[in-house]
Structures
1.
Amino acid sequence: MSRWSFVGRTDELDRLLSAVTGTEGRGLFFSGSAGIGKSRLLREGVAALPRDRYAVWWIAASATTAALPFGGLVQVLPAEQPQGLSPAGILRWAVDVLQQQAAGRRIVLAIDDAHLLDPPSAALVHLVARADNATVIGTLRDGEQLPLPIRALWTDDLVDHVELNPLAPAETTRLLSEILDGPVDATSADRLGRLSAGNPLLLRELVFAADRGELTRTYGIWKWTGRLELAPNLTDLIDTRIGQLTPGVRAVVELVAFGEPLGLHLLNQAVDPADVELAEERGLIVVVRDDRRANVRLAHPLYGEVMRRRCPVSRTRRLQARLAELLEQVGKRRRDDLLRVAVWRLDSGTAQDPALLLDAAGQAFARYDVPLATRLARAALDAGGGFDAAELLATILMFADRPDEAIEVLDAVSADIRGDRRLSRWLTVRGMVSYWGLSRESTVEEIAARRSTLADSADQARVLAFEGIMRLHRLDTGIALRLGQTVLDRPAASVAARELARSTIAYLQAAQGQLHRSATAINQVQAEAGRWRADMPYLQLALELARGTRLALAGDLAGIDAIVADEFADLAGAGDFRLGTGYLAILQAYAARLRGQSDAALRTSLEACAVLATSRVYAGLAQAERAQAAALRGDGAQAAEAMAEADRTHAPGMAVLYPWLEQARGAVLAAGGDVPGAVKHLTGLADRLRADGFAGHEVHVLHDLVRLDRATAPIGPICSDGSRRTVAQRLAELSERVDGDLPPLLARHARAAAGDSADELLAVADGFEALDLAVYAAEAAAAALDRLRRRRSPAAAAARERLAALLGRCDLIRTPALQAGAPALTEREWQVARLAADGVTSRAIAERLYLSARTVENHLQRIYSKLGVAGRAELRAALRAIPGHEGGESE
Ligand SMILES: Nc1ncnc2c1ncn2[C@@H]1O[C@H](COP(=O)(O)OP(=O)(O)OP(=O)(O)O)[C@@H](O)[C@H]1O
Ligand SMILES: [Mg+2]
């Protein structure tokens, strides 16, 4: 097994190193549970010590060495010990040996698992720790007996003693990527991190125990879909922790394993309270008190895995049925009690009540727990739940990316469609599955035709609302708007139908640049969530799409951060509600991209592609965002590849997303070096957006043309005076129609570029920076610098500093706007320039590069003139202002 790199623990490592290298010379011991990473930390610390100043001995105590006197120090002391010395004499001899070998360097004893030291070794360690020129560091495992001389190390104040904590979630995620040698999707990392409770050894075992099919890689991102399989190692590890249990304590742990979190009150009714106390004392369970109840959980999530795995099927079922009974007896009090009872009934094979199952399935779906909702709805249908169960199951299957099964389920109950209510529900669910799940665009006409047979206004409104949002997606925007309005005008419409219609309208308003009105509508949909969630949980997607589009078009990156951090994102991630997770990841990538965080943008967009790979709804959009991220990094090949994927996966029924895809295509062309092609494409796109009335998108596309230095290019139709508007003029015009702070800034950027005003460009850069739009800010500053340099203006130096600072905030970014003015240095010139910027003299540069001093001088002169700087003093900033280079380092 290859050893992966060390992750995190920077504070602990610093602390360990300063324990050795600090002036006080006090040592340090880490305590912690098995596998938490003590040995590894110690080894990393020791490896970092310079051997010319420290004589380091590594001592690994073990059960074998513990049985022999000085067994722990076999690696340290000479094999031959002098005969006839008293025990104290041997100790003194051993210290002398160490002093001799150290030859004046500071002695460092690093003792792994010091609790396993044999008594004489422990005594020697204590003695060494007392010496002035020695430091002792080491590890101890929690809960073990300690040799007295070791414990005396801190009671005598010779060393510090600290607890090594579990890895933080972000560190677990990084460790996972190390173990798997590639990034891991956020949900899997979260699940595995939680199961391992930040313990690296458990994490490793969990990953190695996973079956091949359970760990899959899509677009480079690992995903863990597995039920957990416990490797023998892991089970042993946990067995030693759980130990032998009396039947009473076992009953407690088992009930908690199947029922956690379990009310203490409930548990005490089922078992002997004395056994509950015993289990708590032994550290097997913990009692967590929140405001009103005391809940019991297992002390480690993996205990539950082992207990559940070990429990025979018949016993498991008995326990689950018992739990269901208990909860039914005390009465279901909390909202999720019903769900828990249903799951226990289902798992124990005692679920006979379709109404209970259906209710529970609805609850699970309302929390976006797709797998659980699927199971419960399927069980409800099997238990005789009929039409309602079929409707719910089909809806959930659609969001589990299983549209074919969904259609089957629906068609099987088509004979049960009695009455308009059922017909309207059946039509809408079937329409949704067929339109989005199977990409059948004719669905719209089909449901429109049957809609008119419905007599009841509320039933009609529901179908109208669905037809409206489908029409929106396939770009029948005029009809979509009218249908949405019709629904809002019908007092009989249900809350869900009304809010779905409002989401449709909010989306259109955003695309049209009416961002304020769109925000008002979105807030209204959100405010009604409590009234539509149970009926139509997936309305959240329509809401997120409208909201996300609005925020993206407004350039409101903080707003995007907020929804990405919102509860829905967590629920969707945990419940495998992929369309939700995937869409939010796209938004997150977008925000990272505009901030110039190109690493995060690429990684997150890849994650989105991976999550969305099984459905066609947002797959094209995710690929387009990936293409943008790659283009931002100047990676034309990956950008083109992602764009091709976007075209392959984009569903025609998602036509409304074309502005994003086509905007990406422009960026891809430019990144591939075809700037004229990109300009032509974006010009055509701007015309199309204008014709479609999508002013909210149009301003961004026009701004892309400004970024490609086309502020003065003609655009749009020929006006009555026979001339055409320029990009800058059209932007100025739109900035008065499109809401928000951004359009005036985009227009100002265009005006400054058209007027060649460096001062204005710098002011625009400030404006972009204030909105956190770092890429645009850097591009505006680069354009200013380019103009100043060409005029040989003394203000260039300040502009260069400004650009360098902006680029310093970004990861690698390489856009045409940044490249355009950037001076092109040859490889040789780069080498010379970097060294000179680092303060290496010309003579030393000449020696290092095997050149004559004169040649170096010639190079430098050429470099200065290319960069437009007066001399060495400005060189560093000038190099840093060149995008895509670590300008300051001479490696
Ligand atoms: N910060 C880390 N980065 C990378 N790998 C780690 C890290 N911490 C621990 N590991 C790996 O996790 C595994 C367990 O760590 P380690 O052996 O250090 O645990 P331990 O606390 O010493 O356990 P024990 O009490 O059993 O001795 C090892 O394979 C180790 O390399
Ligand atoms: Mg260890």
2.
Amino acid sequence: MNTPGFHVYAALEGNLGLEAIREALPFGTPLRAVSLTDAVRAGSEVQHGADLIIVGCSQAHEQALEVIAAATAQRADRPVVVLYDGSPNGFLERAFEAGADDLVALPQSAGQLGFALEKAMARRRGAVAPSDEGSMITILGPKGGTGKTVTSSNLAVALALAGKSTVLVDLDLQFGDVGLALGIQPKRTIYDLAVSGGTLDGEKIDGFLAQHPSGAHALLAPLRPDQAAAVGTSFLREVFEILRSRHEFVLVDTPPAFTADVIAAVDVSSHLCMVGMLDALSLKDTKIGLETLEEMGYDPKGITLVLNRADSSVGITQSDVEQLLGRAPDVLVASDRAIPRALTSGQPIVVAEPKSKAARSYFALAERYLAVRTLPAATSNDNGRRRLLLRKAS
Ligand SMILES: Nc1ncnc2c1ncn2[C@@H]1O[C@H](COP(=O)(O)OP(=O)(O)OP(=O)(O)O)[C@@H](O)[C@H]1O
Ligand SMILES: [Mg+2]
């Protein structure tokens, strides 16, 4: 939640969760906390200007529902997070119906609560683009070095070679290396776009895109880690929306963590691509990553699973993988020295050695997305209902 001037309004029964909220919010975030009774009395007026509403209750469920409904009636696009303790007694369903985006049972650590708040901020109802817009695929992998950048750069080039208008956004804002993977010398980066001022439009963004000889475009990561802070989630949402309206494929390479920026990208993506590696630690993280996405309400059927270095002999069989992850990988990529060799030469392997085993896997991955209309989507507009169904099912 690094949006400048971001305001939080908390309506809390007996200061429920106030300390945890203070700890969870980034230092200096403007927070206005009032009692539930005062919030009901003030109606929606008092919430005016807030970017995130938090409602905390343990007994006063009716008052909490009134505040949630008033907040939603005033601004349907603004996230509402409800904290509760004690027995919910049917309150959860009613809170979702009143317009809550997420419900968090207390007590929670500051880290967990912060994650829930970031998630709610990143997820604005109705943010998913209509289906006539380009496909947006976010490439994820909770562990570092699993092959996300190699996958996203090769996928971008394979789609461009298939004649599709494609742009790859490097969301690894601190240590992004899409430029290196594509052999492109960065001239202008996403940082330059973020600080350029004025309104964003397609032509303006075009001026900040680099181009690979295959035709693939790239919005490259900042040159230095300290520049990452200039790139906020609301700016990113705007960029994604504009790119989707102008390109058939928008791909997003990500850092090895579910940061607020990554969640913002995941939330407006039509499809997700999880890259895991055949080793015990990576598989454990892949499993947790898939479970987290499911908990967040994403349909696992819309997540393509790529298993990288799938032929490594590390004592893990394909059926071990299936048993652990609960599903078979969709695409297997072999360990191939041609990949680092291609990186050294500044060319993705689909161009440098298109007949290699690994390149063929990336072409197969591209084929899946070229038939994208037949792939189930990972997200839908009905986030609240999806989460409610998931909670009921679990
Ligand atoms: N199938 C493979 N065979 C051989 N080397 C590979 C393979 N996949 C990836 N590599 C090598 O592993 C390294 C990490 O790959 P990559 O940068 O794509 O991972 P990443 O998930 O993007 O990492 P990070 O989380 O740091 O962004 C690279 O040096 C790449 O050459
Ligand atoms: Mg990477």
